[in-house]
Specification:
The protein is mainly β. The chain contains three helices and 24 strands. Bound molecules: copper (II) ion.
Amino acid sequence: MHGVKQPRNPRSDGPAYITQCPIQPGDSFNYMIIFSMEVGTIWCHAHSDWSRATVHGAIVVYPKRGTGYPFPTPHEEVPIIFGEWWKEDIMQVLNEFVASGGPPRDSDAYTINGQPGDFYPCSSQDTFKLNVTYRKRYLLRMVNAAMNEILFFKIANHSLTVVASDGSYTKPLTKDYVVISTGQALDCLLESNHVPPRGRYYMAARAYATGVGVPFDNTTTTGIVQYNGDFVSTNTTPVLPSLPYYNDTTAAFEFIGSLRSLDPILFQLNKYDTRIYSTVSINTFPCQNNSCAGPNGTSLAAGMNNISFESPRIDILQAYYNHINGVYGTQFPTEPPLYYNFTSTDLPLFLLTPKRATEVRMLEYNSTVEMVFQGTELVSALDHPMHLHGFNFYIVGRGFGNFDEKKDPLNNLVDPPFRNTVLVPINGWATIRSMVYALSSRTSTYMGDEHGVHS
Ligand SMILES: [Cu+2]
């Protein structure tokens, strides 16, 4: 489950080797999903290897019976699922990626509702089309189910009003483009109020990618918004929106930083019981004869506080309940093992190699936790989407450079967005606060980077 709190129901959360062992081929597992406070769009996906690439779907949670939306009722609701598509079998792509030690092969296309769009001859007939009636309101329920890339999305000549993110209402935010990282969901209103010529308009998405020298799929996926009635011939070429440039960090964070929570804050945000300060980096492992495809023949890895997660032999939840020793450690460091200039481009090589471990940090039920994620320049600086399983968190701070407790004020303790995936800016940091009743007191939550690099 992606973004479902699942109170006292951690067995049905899903992450492989955290709350359950992977479901074996031919086997089955019934998930019982308990919804409690989610509202709007969230989603679910397969969680082992790269099965998420093709096994995913939106979950729509409607307002409680007798209550309505905190925004004008839409005329129609439309799922917009972004995906990433490779010509080869996805397992082959993954196996090659893991075997090489280098970055994964770039995808061949992004998709909107399963279709790359009519820039691709193979998809031109089946391009996703949204037929709209003049002067109506459409609720677009967007999910970014791509494997690796954060996306900019825009509809030509129309603006979008965000009303919810990651299953929680937001104050209405009207923009002519949105940013959606892997793992995130956005509910957006689209008003079909374009004055004549009403015509046909592309909706388009392409990557927001900032890593210097890091390859990425730079293609554009499209769908079409077309007005019903006499206004237009279906032969007219739709108007194309101009998306922010691939590495436009200003545009990305202007959008992300403008989101505000609509509902009252759920717990006191001005204090916390535990702080976990963690670096988030790309690392490398040495490779025999320097024969891997990562930098200088190494093999790529990912690390938090210099620990690269190692999958245990059985799931952590089972080991916890059954008191099985030797499956995980309880010493996930609450701060980086070494303080260096995290965002300097000139870092000593010894920092590159992380430890391999399965480390957990135990937290008290009903306590509050602050996590500061610090991006680093190791191998390559990137924007990292960080996802918390089981519960949303408030994004209370974000900035560029090295986090400095004294200098960096928290941006928002009043109405910060309540999300399950935070985008840690390139060469920057992000601070979240959450309360530990995520999956009941007796379980593990799992913080992971939605980028595919560590898979
Ligand atoms: Cu997920």
